[in-house]
Amino acid sequence: MLGNIPHFVFVVRHLTKSVIFGTNKLFRFPKRIIKTDGEDDHLIFRPSIAEKRKRRMLRAPYLETNVKVETNTKHIAEQQLFKDPSGKISWRNLNVKSDTLIEKIRAMRSRQRRKIANTILLEGKNLIMEAVAAGIQLQHVLFCDLKVLENMPLPDEVDKVRISTHRMNTWSLLDSPPGIMAVAKKPTYEEISKSKNSNILPLTVICDGMKDPGNVGSLIRSLAAVGCRRILAVTGCCYFWEVKVLRSASGAHFYIPVYEDISWNRILDYLPHDFFLYLADSNVKNQKNEESLLTTRFQRDTEIVLVVGSERTGLSEQALRFSEQHAGKRLHIPMTNDKFCLNSAVAATLIAFEIRRQMS
């Protein structure tokens, strides 16, 4: 009984100090947890204010799939417009209390919401300029610094909104926000086909299991440069209109039709009746249907279909079954060192430009 008296006196003394001097020592947040013998101590860190805001934003109800985001543009005309000293650039400031644009941008952080709304998010000045040059309809342009809008021939009907740097960093889907983003309407296949030139290569590329945004963006940019007719993305690939894919492609989406989420059972609906099928596969040694890219002669008057898979998993079983049904041939790119394989985008680019060289 007497052994507990010092502990009781210690607690009473600290309670008295807390009441008299207004301190709250007993309820402070702990800085370190001291373990017993044989265990290591570890520090306790409080989350920052910015981290708390991000957590609250991710838990917000507007990111749920069953919530509808309505676009109301009546408030835009009521807000005050500002102009630069030259009078060429006009914009408005974001109204945090009543602007429905906040909910719209937050909802666009969800890939599913972007698909439903049929909109795309463009980040970066060069990408926005490519969209304007291709005739893509911009809805909103958000920026932090007014200097970003210099030498940008944006249409007058586009809603230009100035926001804070903190809000730009929060809304951006990139690791390093470029300071300007735009919300645009996703172009249709007819609009993209009109922007293509007349020198179209009779080549259709089927992407099978490509999930890396950087590889997909590089592939789209190379195929748009060579003049490919269309790209078919089989179910299981990444979203081709993702922000990172758009940045990697540098605006090539606006010049080549891309058909997504296609099953192998419906792949023939997007192909002509007669075509030659080739598979870009590195594992083709001692195969009967193997052909080297250096000796292959492509036909001019018939559509060429090229199937490209991921360098990690290769071609799927459905792709190989589709090749057997349509007499497909595997293309082999000879290399001096067989221990390494080419990137999927690089391999498809080499084959596409070889087809262009033979047909030119």
UniProtKB/TrEMBL annotation:
Keywords assigned by UniProt, alphabetized: Methyltransferase, Transferase
Q: One Pfam family of this protein, by short name?
A: SpoU_methylase
Entry annotated with the keyword Cell membrane: no
Q: Give the record's GO biological process terms.
A: methylation; RNA processing
Q: Could you give one GO CC term from the UniProt record?
A: cytoplasm
Q: Which SMART domains match?
A: SpoU_sub_bind (SM00967)
SUPFAM superfamilies to which the protein is assigned, alphabetical: alpha/beta knot (SSF75217), L30e-like (SSF55315)
Q: Which GO terms describe its molecular function?
A: RNA binding; RNA methyltransferase activity
The residue ranges of the RNA 2-O ribose methyltransferase substrate binding domain are: 121-190
Instruction: State the InterPro entries in the record.
Output: Alpha/beta_knot_MTases, MRM3-like_sub_bind, Ribosomal_eL30-like_sf, rRNA_Methyltransferase, SpoU_MeTrfase, SpoU_subst-bd, tRNA_m1G_MTases_N
Which PANTHER family does the entry mention? Answer: RRNA METHYLTRANSFERASE 3, RRNA METHYLTRANSFERASE 3, MITOCHONDRIAL
Q: Which family does it belong to?
A: Belongs to the class IV-like SAM-binding methyltransferase superfamily. RNA methyltransferase TrmH family.
Protein name listed in UniProt: RNA methyltransferase-like protein 1B
Q: Which organism is it from?
A: Trichinella patagoniensis
